[in-house]
Amino acid sequence: MADTKKTADKVKDTINEKIVDPAKKAGEAMKSSGAKLAEGGSTVGMKMLDQAEENTRQAFAAMRAAAQAKDLTEVMKVQGDFLRDQGTRSMSQVREIGDLIMQFGKEAVAPLSGKK
Fold it and tell me: Would the pTM count as exceeding 0.70?
C-alpha cells in the first residue's frame, strides 16, 4: 500500500513538473505578451494621432502664409516649402512609428522566448 502511494505521489509530481508547471508558465508568458501588445498598440495609436495633429497644424500654417502672400511667386514658394517639409516630416514619422512597432514587438515576444 505504501509503495502504491509513493508511486502515485511520484506520478503526480512528474505530471506537475513536466506538464502543469510548464503550462502555467506558458499561460503567464502569453498573458504578459498580450499585455505588452495592447500597451504597444495604444502607444502607436497615440503617436499617430500626435503626428496627424502636427501635420494639420503645419498645413494650416502654410495656408495662412499662402493667404497672406503678396503675389503668385510667394504662394508657390510657400507651397513648395510646405511640400518639401511635409515629405521630410512624413519620412521621420514613418521611421518613428516603425521603431515603436519593432520595440513593442521585441517586448511582446520576450516573455514567450524566456528573455526578460
Answer: no
pLDDT digit string, tens, across residues 77-100: 999 999 999 999 999 999 999 999
Q: Please tell me whether residue 45 adopts helix, strand or coil conformation.
A: helix
Residue type, 107: E
Set of cell numbers at residue 39:
500597451
Question: Can you say how many angstroms the Cα of residue 5 is from the centroid of all Cα atoms in its chain?
Answer: 52
The 3-state DSSP composition of the chain as helix, strand, coil percent (nearest 5) reads 95, 0, 5
Cα 15 to Cα 6, 19, 112, distances in angstroms = 14, 5, 22
Question: All 3 cell numbers of residue 2?
Answer: 505504501
Q: Are 58 and 86 in contact (CB under 8 A)?
A: yes
CA 32, CA 23: separation in Å to the nearest integer? Answer: 14
Three-class secondary structure assignment of 49-104: HHHHHHHHHHHHHHHHHHHCCCCHHHHHHHHHHHHHHHHHHHHHHHHHHHHHHHHH
